[in-house]
Design a protein that fits this description.
By secondary structure, the protein is mainly alpha-helical. The protein has a single domain, classed as Up-down Bundle (Four Helix Bundle (Hemerythrin (Met), subunit A)), CATH 1.20.120. The chain is built from five helices and no strands. Helix 3 runs antiparallel to helix 4. The radius of gyration is 28 Å and the shape is elongated. The termini are far apart.
């Protein structure tokens, strides 16, 4: 009889422990699903970062022109994904891209050497505009926040 009571007690104890263990494990909250604007912004960031990798001596003016085409394509993707939101910040990035394009266009087939300071200034303005776009995107689309 004592053995039966001990087995019954062990079985009840096992059930209690199992029940407590199941209740103690919290259900993880699903992480927010990134919206298309997050991916589009990441693409834009990557295309702007690629400009920093241009070697003016080897890539020349064509390297910048090609990179800016990619930036414009990615910026269009952000505009479309944002669906009318972020227009002020997107316009600022677009203006910075146009300013840089204007500087490059003014060179014609000339050397980049004399224009490197102005190109650097234009790139800095582009970086600032992108930072403001990213900040506003993260504010408007919480799932885009950098981890």
């Amino acid at each position: 009889m004592r053995a039966t009571a001990l087995v019954a007690f062990a079985a009840v104890l096992a059930l209690v422990v199992a029940a407590c263990g199941a209740a103690a494990s919290p259900t993880p909250e699903p992480s927010p699903t990134p919206t298309p604007v997050c991916a589009a912004l990441d693409d834009l960031q990557a295309s702007i970062d690629a400009i920093d990798q241009i070697d003016p001596l080897n890539d020349g003016l064509d390297g910048y022109v090609t990179a800016l085409q990619t930036v414009r394509t990615d910026l269009t993707g952000v505009r479309e994904a944002a669906g009318g939101q972020l227009s002020t910040q997107i316009d600022a990035v677009e203006t910075a891209v146009s300013d840089l394009q204007g500087t490059l266009d003014s060179l014609g087939d000339g050397s980049l050497g004399g224009a490197m300071q102005e190109i650097g200034d234009r790139l800095s303005a582009l970086g600032t505009a992108l930072t403001e776009l990213r900040t506003e995107t993260e504010s408007s689309f919480s799932e885009c926040k950098a981890s």
